[in-house]
Amino acid sequence: MNFSVPPDRVPPKGLCRIWYRGLPPDRQPASMTCARAHQTARAHGGLVIIATSPRSFQTGEVAATDYGPVDFSGVPPDRLPPPGLCRVWLDGVPPDRQPPPMSCPEASAYQRHSGGRVLFMPASDVSP
Description:
This protein is 20% helix and 20% strand. By secondary structure, it is an alpha+beta fold. The radius of gyration is 15 Å and the shape is elongated.
């Protein structure tokens, strides 16, 4: 499927990026190897995008594989977990009263006890 992103957010040649619909471009995960992007999106959802030609870097048109939606509704973008961490989000609780970001195993245990949903933001596996 074709998809459009801001041209400055197209992943570099040979890399992919997970793209979450509804998140601002500056809050999208960093580029990563395509193997990691597909593996992570299969487990957590999102679109995996890749440049289709040199023109992608001017137009922002990329190829995308859709692994399903991710529910970031009601979460201010500045409250997303840092890359590589998770955060439990409790609907109806003010943003400043939410549990802090934590490891994903800790977040899963917290969620089993307190409810809510676990938010995950993948980290890149390539050096900047």
